[in-house]
Amino acid sequence: MEPSHKDAETAAAAAAAAADPRAASASSGVVVQVREKKGPLRAAIPYMPFPVAVICLFLNTFVPGLGTFVSAFAVLCGARTDLPDRHVCCVFWLNIAAALIQTLTAIVMVGWIMSIFWGMDMVILASYKEQGIPQQL
């Protein structure tokens, strides 16, 4: 009796796992850590108190860029960002640039959608801060 095609595949997989221990560990439940790489505009979003972040979300929803503009002033008031090596004024101007981009591209709906997602990111970051969850960079 000849071995079936499925038996040959199983034998080949076992041989590959024996030759490469990393292949065997991938199927044994190894946890892999994934880190999000943020661009400078995304990393400039400040960690604000939750109510302020919700207000900025509503402002961004109805007037694209307005909530991002307000959040830029939170940076001047001492809100932390994911850009600790940059000066406060640089982060402030990055947020102003993001607000300007959102406002100018709102005509073609791109800025409006970006503005809403920006506001959602503000709320997510505020909830991390409020819950005390460390944000891994």
Helix-strand category: mainly alpha
Beta-strand content bin? under 5%
The H-and-E topology, N to C, reads as HHHHHHH
Q: Give the distance, in angstroms, between the N- and C-terminal Cα atoms.
A: 58 Å
Please state the overall shape, judged from the principal axes of the Cα atoms. Answer: globular
Number of helices: 7
Characterize the quaternary organization of these chains. single chain
Provide the gyration radius in Å.
23 Å
Low-confidence segments, ≥5 residues, pLDDT <50? none
Instruction: Profile the largest sheet.
Output: none
Descriptive account of the structure:
The protein has 137 residues and is mostly helical. It has seven helices and no strands. The protein has helices at 5-19, 21-26, 40-43, 50-62, 66-76, 88-104, 110-131. Helix 4 (50-62) runs antiparallel to helix 5 (66-76). The relative contact order is 0.15.
Write the layout of secondary structure elements.
Layout: H1 5-19, H2 21-26, H3 40-43, H4 50-62, H5 66-76, H6 88-104, H7 110-131
Helix pairs in contact: 4-5, 4-7, 5-6, 6-7
